Amino acid sequence: MKEHRLRRIFGPDQKTVIVACDHAGFSGPLPGLEDPGKLMDTLVASGVDAVLTTMGIARRYASRMGKLGLILRMDGGSSIRAVDMGTLRNQFTMEDAVLLGADAVICMGMIGYPEEAASLANLAELTSESAQWNIPVVAEMLVKSKDGSPLKAEDIGFGMRIGVELGADLIKASYVGPAGEYREALKSCYRPVVVLGGEKAKSEASLLESIAEALDSGANGVAIGRNVWQHSNPAGICRALVALVHHGASISQALQELNA
Known about the structure:
This protein is α/β, with parallel strands linked by helices and 260 residues long. It is 43% helix and 17% strand.
């Protein structure tokens, strides 16, 4: 059953383009997320594989998600306005996810942060329950370096390995080069990995170049948020990502999709 659900997230080539639009559950109204229904229409038409979103959006706009795979954000605990961020916890149950028709669930694993212990407990709770409900678990592994220096690929590798050891079926994590070091980090992660989009990219070319490098190194796809729905042409950047991830397009070929 897990494999059936994962086939709704991954293409036949075992690659995936996921669009993350769960940000408003923490940050409130954001430019680009004002109309989730319109965004769903855009994603369906663009050919991306799946959407990562909140309980609210999934419930309200299920009828507009078409064949998109659904990954449900499970954890939280505060908003961006909180005086005390408190403790991360799973806010929804596996039964909630099943009743909603989710194909996978996701929670954070925050290595090196004050929330580390709580986040890893949340992850373990979900992976324990996933066997009963046959729901794949995605671990979004955020990592701080040991000494505050810039992140290295080995830091990302450390976080990814923690995630799979706790039972995650899929890892979402940053890409950190150089490519050779990232490739080595992936060797220790025995589950598929998708690259998170992070902060707003300086340009489409820089975003696609980073993704292409990660794919060439062995990543299985991307999970992109604000670089899609805050783009002036969300449909175009989605098509560019699909061309890059699924069709092996060059950067210049992928960029042409922006004007298609």
